[in-house]
Amino acid sequence: QVQLVESGGGLVQAGGSLRLACAASGHIFSTYAMGWFRQAPGKEREFVAGYSWIGGRTSYADSVKGRITISKDNAKNTLYLQMNSLKPEDTAVYYCAAYRQVFPTGAPDYWGQGTQVTVSS
Predict the structure, then answer these.
(1) Residues 61, 40: contact at Cβ < 8 Å?
(2) pLDDT digits (tens, 9 = 90+) for 33-77
(3) Which candidate among 23, 40, 47, 49 keeps its CA 20 to 30 Å from the CA of 64?
(4) pLDDT, tens only, 66-117
């Protein structure tokens, strides 16, 4: 059974930082592409960052490039999202996702339950 459990969300002032974590089932973490998405109130869920399981290639949405970094710790089966220089428009529920493929493209196959990030101005 695939399980993705996010943590680390919260309330932060504009310009601050947060690190989100996603604990993943061991049997998927080393062979699935992983990613982070977010959904703001009244908006569609959007891709934030992705991590390919071959080569460790990363990808980012243009809106977060230079401020957000995706990484993973294979020993801990944990995916991270380091968010710096946060803006009020980053406020959203952030979701961890897993893909049964090499690259994080298209629709994920599995989702976590989400964690709320709120950035105050």
Answers:
(1) no
(2) 999 999 999 999 999 999 998 888 999 999 999 999 999 998 899
(3) 23
(4) 999 999 998 899 999 999 999 999 999 999 999 999 999 999 999 999 999 9
